[in-house]
Amino acid sequence: MKQTDLEKDIRYLQLLSRSFPTATEASTEIINLEAILNLPKGTEHFLADVHGEYEAFMHILKNASGNIKRKVNEIFGNSMREADKRELCTLIYYPEQKLRLVKQSDSDINDWYHITIHRLVAVCREVSSKYTRSKVRKSLPREFAYIIEELLHERTDDHDKTDYVNTIVDTIIDTQSADDFIIALANVIQRLAIDQLHILGDIYDRGPGAHIIMDYMQGYHSWDIQWGNHDILWMGALAGNDACICNVIRLSLRYANLATLEEGYGINLVPLATFAEDTYGNDPCAEFAPKMNGGAQHIDERTYHLTTLMHKAISVLQFKAEGQIFSRHPEWRMNGRRMFDNTDFAKGRTRIDDKWYDLSSCNFPTVDPKRPDRYSKEEELLMEKLRRSFQISEKLNIHIESMLRHGCMYNICNGNLLFHASCPLNSDGTIKDVELMPGRKYKGRELMHQIGMLIRAAFQNDTAKATRDYAIDYFLYLWCGPDSPLFDKGKMATFERYFIADKSTWEEKKGYYFQLRDNEAVIDGILDAFGVKGDNRHIINGHVPVHASKGENPIKANGKLMVIDGGFSKAYHNETGIAGYTLVYHSRGFQLVQHEPFTSTEDAIRMGTDIKSTTQIVEMSNHRMRVADTDKGEELRQQIAELKKLLYAYRHGLLKEKTAQ
Fold it and tell me: Which positions ≥6 away from 450 have C-beta within 8 Å?
C-alpha cells in the first residue's frame, strides 16, 4: 500500500475514524465483516401481482412460502405428531388468535406453555442460525431480547445448563408473561424466515384489501417494490390525473370491490352514486354489470343495480378524460384511442383502424357529439369532488409515499434483474428507443430510470409546472401506452369490450418483449444492456398470468427468465388453475413455490389449514452461497478495504488514534 495513495484519501479516513477511533476498533470491525462474508446467503422471496388478496398474501409471508413448516418437520420429524406440528405452525403464523383458542380448550395450560416455549425456541434457533448474533439481536423485541438470546444459545441437553434454562421458562410462566413471550417468539421466527422481500408490482386493484397489505408493509423489516401498472394507476389518481381516478374507480366497480376505496381510503362515492342514478337511472346498463367471480362478497339487488349505474357513469367519464389527455399529447400517437371522438352517435357506431363497428348500445346523455371529450357541467363538478377526495386521503398519501420510498421501475439484486412487465424491444429483439418527453428518447435501463424520475417529479412541489403537468399526464401513458414498460401492448381494449360484440376488436396485441421472451439470446441482450453480471443471472417479472393449468411453464429462455404471476387474484384462479407463485432464492439456489387457493384466515386458525404448495427446483448452486457471493458481500469487501486503509494510517502515523478521555 502506497503512502501517497493514502494521503489522497485522508479526508475520507478522518471521517471514518469518527466511527472507529482506534486501531483496535478498526481491526475488530474487519474481523467481524470478514466473518459475515462466510455466513450463508439470506433468503429472498419474490412475489408479483398480489392484487389486493391480503389474506393469501399475508399468510404466505407468515409461513414464509412453506419454509417454516419445512423447518418444523426437519426439527421434530417423527418425534412429534402431525397434528401437533400443524398446531405449532398455526401458532407461529397467528400467535394471538391461536393462544385464545388454546386457552379455551387446554386443561393444563402451564404444561402447554412449557412444552410450546421449548419448541418455539428450537424453531427460532434454526431460522436464526444463518445470521450473526448482532443481526438476530436487532430483530428481537426490546422487552424480551435478553431472555430470548439466552434461550437461543443455551440448551437443555447441556446438563450444566438444564436447570438454568428450565428456570427461565418456569419464571416466564409464573410471572404471567407466557402469552407475550410466545407472541414475541412467533414474530421473531416470521421475521428471520425471510431476509428480503421483493414485490414485483401490482399490489392494487381487483381484490378487497390492497390498503390492508400496504398497512402491513409499513412495519415490514425489509422490502422493495418494482411498480406495476395497477400501482401506477393509484399513484396517478393521487397526483390528480382524472383518467387514472376514473380507471381506479371503474376497476373497483367492475369487480364489485369497493372496500379499498371506501373503507381503506375514505373515498366518497356518494356524489358518483347520485350522479349515476340521475343520469342513467332508466338505462339497463347491461354492459356494466359487475363481475361477481372475482372474489367480491354477495351484494343485494339494489346495490348490484346501483353498482352497475355507477360503473357506466365512471366509464363514460374515463373515456372523456383519456380523450382530453391524448389530445394534449399528439406525440404519443394515441388519437386513435379517443373513442368518443371516433364515434358516430347518430348511427351508433365507432371507427377503429378505418373500419366501422356497431355499438351494442349508444345511450350517452352527457356526450356532446360536437365536443365529445368535454365534461358536462355536472361531470365537471363530480370530477372536482372525486379528485379532491383522493388527494386529501391521509392514508393514501402515506401508502403512495411508502411506494415511492421503497420502490422504483426496476431493481438489480444479486444477479437478478427485476421489473414488473416488460423492456420495450424492436422486432429483431434489440432494445427499443422510446420517446419519454418531446424530443427525448431513452431505452432499456436509462428509460426505466428516467420514467422513475418523472414519476417522482409529479409529487415534488419544486418541479417546474410544465414538467409536473406532463408527469401527471404521463401516468395514463404508463397505464395504456404501447411503448410503456408497464403495458407494452398495441392498445387497451376497454371500450371495445364494453360496447362492441366483434371480439376481434378486443385483441390487445402484445409487444415484442412478450413475443420474444423465450429467446435466450434476447434475454441475454437485455441483461447485458442493464449491466447485470454473473454466470447465473436472470430476469424476474410478473404482469402476465402463467396458465399453469394449460401446461405453460413459468421458466423461460433456458432458465434465464422467470415469470412469477401465477394469479393471486381470485378473478384469475379459473384462468391460471393455481393461486400464485413465490420464487424463493436461498443459499442453495432457486425454488419456485406454486400455491393453491387459500380458504381463509379463520380456517387457518381454527382448523390449522395451510396453503397447499408445490415446490419446483428451478436452479441449484454447486456450492452453498455465502454472503460473499451477494451484492452485500461486495459492499462488505469495499468496507473492509477502507478499514484496512484506516488501520494502516493509524499504524504509520498518518492519523492519530482517539482514546477515551
Answer: 436, 440, 442
